[in-house]
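User: Predict the structure for this protein chain, please.
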Amino acid sequence: MHVPDGFINAPVSVAAGAVAVAGVAVALRGARRELDDRTAPLAGLTAAFVFAAQMLNFPVASGTSGHLLGGTLAAILVGPYTGVLCVSVVLLMQALLFADGGLTALGVNVTTMALTTVAVGYGLFRLLLRVLPKTRPAVAGASFAAAVVSVPAAAVAFTLIYAAGGTTDVSVGKVAAAMIGVHVLIGIGEALITAVTVSSVLAVRPDLVHGARGLLKPLELRTAAGGPTEPSRA
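Assistant: Here is the predicted structure, written as structure tokens:
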């Protein structure tokens, strides 16, 4: 999914860069409402997890491979604005340190892998929670569905950008078929990782899962006599 330098022409790259800058600026303002002393460490851990996961590829088909995009996972755990910042920082570090995605294409990569995945994934996640039961399995299921959809949505966004400014002689139809088809499969892998991660955090600290706040009641610890104690964070 990482777009290299020269794959998209300069005018479209500049336009995508402007969209990315505007999106990150909005995210910086919104993140002030999402972050506090309790959630800021989780945001750092989430960014580190996405960074590490994006370095690990898994086979898909015909010799191709994919990796976690992380936008939906980050948005559910720490909030959509902070999620955009987490993924954007990861993409910047990858471009600077590992040449994974070109610097001139950073705006394209942020637009597709940070803005699109968070907007689509978190939007669908919250929509599903409106109609699903307020239970941990329902939250995990909603996170799975949101991640499945967000990955091919990023591929669609890239295809539209390529249609506007692609520099190769490959037809838009072939690019769309290859990108969307492969990323549907990648989305399944991402969805499994997202659902397992969200479920794991819900099991121990549901109060830290931004997307599920106010939906799940904290567990109560009971004494040997059967009386409840103060609600735990578990």
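The longest strand covers residues 228-231.
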